[in-house]
Amino acid sequence: MKPFIRDIILEHKIEIMEEWQKEINKFRTDDSLQNITDTMYENTNREFVNKLILTVQTEGGGDHDELIQFAERLIQLGWPLNYITRGLQEFRKITIETLSETSDNYCKSIEFFQEIEDWIDGIVNLLVNQYSGSWENTVFLQKMALKELSAPLIPVFDNISVMPLIGTIDTERAKLIMENLLDGVIEHRSQVVLIDITGVPVVDTMVAHHIIQASEAVRLVGAKCILVGIRPEIAQTIVNLGIDLGKFPTKSTLKKGIESALELTKRQIVEIEQ
Amino acid sequence: MRIPILKLHDYLLISVQVELDDQTALQFQEDVLGKIHEEGSRGVVIDLTSVEMIDSFIAKVLGDVVDMSNLMGAKVVLTGIQPAVAITLIDMGIVLDEVPTALDLEQGLERLQLELEG
Amino acid sequence: MQVQTHVDIHSEWGIVAARQAGRKLAREIGFGSVDQARITTAISELARNIYLYANKGQIQIEEVTVSGKRGIKIIAVDEGPGIKDLRRVMEDGFTTSGGLGAGLPGVKRLMDEFDIDSEMNAGTSISAIKWLR
Q: What pLDDT score was predicted for residue A62?
């Protein structure tokens, strides 16, 4: 930024800051800012605008460390991104308005506007990148967490295992489920595997396709698959979509599934007479 | 290269321990059928635990061995198909629909006994 | 310099050599056992097609890196008769060799990217990529 522009901004610093704080207070009623106290809000506003002015004061405008630290704190506290973007938009508007009202003619030129735009755009990019970086990180961690959640195979009797499926099944998860399932079958020497879909909210053709493939793969490695936990609405969608599950056995509940698994492995549960 | 075929009472036991190239696979098909004819076997267990890959050609040869053996009156069970191999076959759309399978040689023999009695 | 392997296919042994080379590179790149099987099987199908239909050709296997993603690329080239109807060979169950008709559509499903180029009486070139997850 050119030194004399910097000087003009700093000269009108007080006006800009006051005007900005007035404007930013209009967003106070936003839903996402409701649970922040008034003092907190005011303090944050003051800090924000101070940091913005600071980027003018520092030579070359390249040193944004303080602003980055400020944004990092906002991210940790869970402030919404639009507080920052709106704050910056207002700041740009007010700076240009305030300065174009001055007597200096240069402040009415296109060149001047561009200088201000470049300065603010740099800050916008910087802060938005920081926010999205933190989101990407969150998404990554959640993906990992979901992966860990994905479908353990639980041996319940000798040669009988259960795999409870919970949540939506997409292609990537389906692949993981399939690998877990087959490795588990080998590890536990399972002859019968019950796939429990009680916790799967929606069974569409895609999900059904994944389940059918998994059960066919289970058959290839030498075990048998029973699909259990078929709720009425799932039975309806399956039939309505014309999905053919005729090739492998299904049961309404895990309990019935286990009974038929025991039968398949030539066992049964009997009551002991006292 | 030839894959050894063992005889156990009415059954033939085969453990495929080599990487199957086309010629070996076809030779194997011929040997199994010849042996069934020679011994009058009623059942065959083919163990594939050490097989790391089954492509469409080998899948076809295996499927054919099962069908041909059935024609000659011998039931075939495939055992020990590895998870990675099973997933690859499913991905390719090869289901080996009518072929009985079991986890390992031991369960394969049990399964044969069951099929022959039932 | 990235790893690259060429295997000439002019006999059935070429098929075995190609898939062994593929498995080795897939393992080195860090693919898991399931993807290793997928890659090896895809190579086997492509190599067999060369042997069956063109008699001879070449399989190239190489490591690829595109915008930070790592993967393995298989290129199958021959100067055989070419494929008459590209759409039909990609249909499940279509076969001219008496096989299962799972070959090319199978390769497409096993890999992440698939590209085929064929000219009558000039040859066929197929490339397929599997990305490391």
A: 55
pLDDT in tens, B51-95: 999 999 999 999 999 999 999 999 999 999 999 999 999 999 888
d(CA C69, CA C129): 11
CATH number at residue A123: 1.10.490.10
- Look at B107 and A191 and tell me if their CB atoms are within 8 Å: yes
The CATH code for residues C4-131 is 3.30.565.10
Task: List, as one string, the DSSP characters of C61-126.
Answer: EEEEEETTEEEEEEEEEE-SS--S-HHHHTSTT--SSSS-S-HHHHHHHHSSEEEEEEETTTEEEE
pTM of the predicted model as reported, rounded to 2 decimal places: 0.73
Q: Does B18 touch chain A (CB under 8 A)?
A: no
Of B53, B50, B79, nearest in space to B66 by CA: B79
Count Cβ–Cβ pairs < 8 Å, chain B vs chain C: 75
Q: Do B90 and A216 touch (CB under 8 A)?
A: yes
The answer to whether B52 faces chain C, any CB pair under 8 Å, is yes
Q: Is residue A30 part of a domain?
A: yes
Reported as a single tens digit per residue, the pLDDT across C33-81 is 999 999 999 999 999 989 988 888 999 999 999 988 999 999 999 988 8
Amino acid at B62: L
CATH of domain B5-117: 3.30.750.24
What is the ipTM, given to two decimal places? 0.88
